[in-house]
Design a protein that fits this description.
Chain lengths: ~325, ~400
């Protein structure tokens, strides 16, 4: 005790007797690498260091995802099954109101599966984007007090969105198989790029908006509006063929089709729901998806760089 | 003992931090105040300005300064929580920041779940936490409540658990911001013991606090910040004295701003302080005879006059006080000009700044009060502290 408890005025330069534990620590620190905190350069460099940083914190990431899931349905009797409540009610409403009353189901066999396919993939997109947008602000307490790479928060909320949607995907697979709507053909492979496409765009938007939302809280409300528009702007409840009939071939139809959400919804339907005629689908779907995917990756990098630019001031703006 | 090289663990290199205060925060206001008018809606100030220093492993550094001096900002930059506008901070070894206890706690999770989450946030792996889990719970004194949701905890339990997690994170560098003031007395003692243990293990501690007693007790070194600039770096006692001087100056500045007259008008003139041995001086050496003299003047004459004086330290604690009535000084009614002199033989004042409070009464009415008639500075001798100084005699003898 006497070694560390310096009375007032005792010379601090005097040789202090260090314990073996302390000397061992000094030896280790001598060889340790320096970590630097300074303004991160924005620029168009690849976000490799951020990626490494997030990877180094993967245990925290896993715990944050679990925290989100546990805290969300804690103290509720049905727990995780509430995840299904919203999409199932939506399905019922659209099926009755739009399918039966407005007659949209006439040209589309297995209309329930058709809607549910679109709703499921769109639900994943919307849950990632809206959850991620709020993730940084709602973890403000943590960001102000502890250092962990901030990208963790939108990524963790993406993780919990994926798990929530996973249940719905499971239900979709079962329903599609039971009703015989599943397309046992090479087209079923479209499911994979569709999900990837949604992930890339949703994560890119989520990361960008989570940072912007810190400075402009309007974002979280604005995005709800846009998510509603996106839903109706992709062929979830109606078919692409109906749009093509009205717009006719031309630039408008191309714009409508090349919306990555539309492409993903179409891709999902190719797998989970038997299309009647190939004419009901745009040509060159593979190529369109490929281009959209590459554009998405570029967008993701740009969004991450923007995030990195903005995150320096998070702690003081929250 | 062989010379050992102690490595640096923190390097602060010309750090500057600019804050921008905005008065608008919604999209509508941003658009309305876009461009040049937007500029007017923001105010910037430098919380830190070109601060440079480095810290050796195993030192306990106190960061002190008045509110808004930038000490917490500096601590947050070291912890990586905010990025500096210019310059850089380098650290090595594992850092744990005790900035706000329980920041990562989620009310709906149990104590156990929160321990794992918080430990992970502090950079511990799951295996490490599992190994130390029992120790963490034992230190916190939570007991069986560990599997209860933390929203049902009392605030004391919450803080104790959070502190316990942070302290068991095995940091090489511990950043502490004003958290030593939480919990009951026995828990505080536990915390302080833990800090001593850390010091012995050669861990580096950087402490932001207003408790200057903690600084002189625990720190090896003090870094004093004033308006974002480093103004002192060195011995804790000197640093604390310097800081008290700064606080004093600020108070004086505020005082003169409020337009209060100092010694220009009224009945008391020419206050002189000093010692009998060395004559008038604002510096005083303990053991000399302290002399306080003042000239009183009244054109009409005062009956039943009484001079009251006290010497106060910057915390407002009285070191010496006296008044002429209770000293039973024979007083004639006062007319014209008179000198009144107080001598305190062998005044054993401790080090620091003392402030002379003077009041002149006539009967039961107070004619004049000079709260800051003069200041006396006592330099420390042999590193002594406290209100009173006496030269100690130390004898070591064998015996049981």
């Amino acid at each position: 005790m006497a070694a560390t408890r310096r009375g007032s005025g005792a010379s601090h330069e005097s040789a202090r007797r260090w314990s073996p534990v302390a000397l061992e620590r000094f030896r280790e620190l001598e060889g340790a690498t320096w970590s630097t905190r300074e303004r991160r350069p924005g620029g168009l460099t690849l976000p490799l260091s951020s990626l490494r940083d997030v990877f180094a914190h993967r245990e925290v990431l896993a715990l944050l995802v679990r925290r989100d899931l546990k805290a969300r349905y804690k103290d509720s009797v049905l727990g995780m099954f509430w995840v299904l409540a919203k999409p199932l009610v939506q399905l019922a409403l659209y099926f009755v109101a739009i399918g039966l009353f407005l007659g949209a189901s006439r040209g589309i066999p297995n209309f329930a599966i058709y809607i549910f396919t679109g709703l499921t993939i769109y639900g994943l997109f919307s849950e990632i984007v809206s959850g991620a947008t709020q993730s940084v602000v709602s973890n403000g307490g943590l960001i102000k007090k502890v250092y962990i790479p901030r990208e963790i928060f939108p990524i963790a909320s993406t993780g919990s969105a994926l798990i929530n949607s996973g249940i719905q995907f499971g239900l979709l697979i079962v329903a599609s198989l039971l009703s015989g709507a599943f397309n046992f053909a090479p087209q079923a492979l479209y499911i994979i790029p569709s999900i990837m496409l949604i992930l890339v765009y949703a994560v890119a938007l989520g990361i960008l908006l989570s940072a912007v939302n810190v400075y402009l809280r309007d974002m979280q409300y604005l995005i709800e509006v846009f998510l509603m528009i996106f839903m109706w702007a992709s062929p979830i409840i109606y078919s692409w063929g109906m749009v093509a009939k009205i717009l006719g071939p031309g630039i408008l139809l191309e714009i409508y089709t090349d919306n990555p959400l539309t492409l993903a919804v179409l891709g999902m339907q190719q797998g989970f729901w038997h299309g009647d005629a190939p004419t009901d689908y745009p040509d060159l779907l593979w190529m369109r998806m490929g281009i959209a995917f590459i554009v998405g990756i570029v967008l993701l990098v740009v969004c991450q760089r923007t995030f990195s630019r903005l995150e320096g001031d998070f702690a003081q703006s929250l | 003992m062989a010379k050992i090289t102690i490595p640096d663990v923190v390097r602060v290199e010309s750090i500057a931090k600019k804050f921008i205060l905005r008065k608008d925060d919604s999209l509508k206001e941003r658009i309305v105040t876009f461009g040049r008018r937007g500029r007017q809606h923001r105010e910037e100030f430098w919380a830190l300005n070109d601060v440079d220093f480095s810290i050796q492993a195993g030192t306990t550094v106190g960061l002190i300064g008045h509110n808004g001096s930038g000490k917490s900002t500096l601590l947050k930059i070291m912890g990586g929580i905010i990025t500096p506008t210019r310059g850089r901070v380098q650290t090595r070894g594992r850092i744990a920041a005790l900035l706000e206890l329980g920041a990562g706690f989620h009310p709906d999770l149990t104590g156990r779940e929160n321990v794992f989450l918080n430990a992970a946030l502090l950079g511990q792996s799951k295996a490490e936490t599992e190994a130390r889990f029992d120790e963490i719970v034992a230190f916190s004194g939570i007991g069986d409540f560990i599997d209860t949701q933390v929203k049902f905890y009392s605030s004391g339990m919450f803080v104790r658990l959070a502190f316990s997690v942070s302290i068991h994170a095995e940091p090489d560098i511990l950043l502490v911001d004003e958290v030593l003031a939480v919990g009951d007395e026995s828990f505080q003692r536990q915390c302080l013991d833990k800090i001593r243990e850390f010091q012995e293990q050669g861990r580096t501690i950087i402490l932001v606090t207003h408790g200057l007693a903690h600084v002189t007790e625990f720190c090896d070194r003090v870094v004093l910040l004033d308006h974002g600039k480093l103004v002192f770096d060195g011995d804790p006692n000197e640093g604390v004295t310097k800081f008290r001087d700064l606080l004093e100056e600020r108070r004086l500045a505020q005082f003169s701003l409020s337009g209060e007259p100092e010694l220009d008008t009224g009945y008391v003139h020419d206050v002189v302080v000093g010692s009998v041995q060395n004559g008038p001086s604002t510096n005083f050496t303990p053991g000399e005879d302290l002399r306080v003299a003042m000239r009183l003047e009244h054109p009409d004459g005062i009956r039943d006059w009484n001079v009251r004086l006290s010497l106060l330290n910057p915390q407002g604690i009285t070191a010496i006080s006296a008044n002429t009535v209770s000293l039973d000084v024979t007083r004639k009614p006062l007319t014209g000009s008179h000198w009144v002199e107080f001598v305190f033989p062998g005044a054993q004042l401790g080090n620091g700044t003392f402030n002379l409070y003077l009041a002149l009464d006539s009967g039961s009415t107070t004619l004049q009060v000079l709260p800051r008639a003069a200041t006396i500075t006592v330099a420390p001798i042999m590193g002594a502290g406290g209100l009173v100084f006496t030269r100690p005699k130390v004898r070591v003898s064998a015996g049981k």
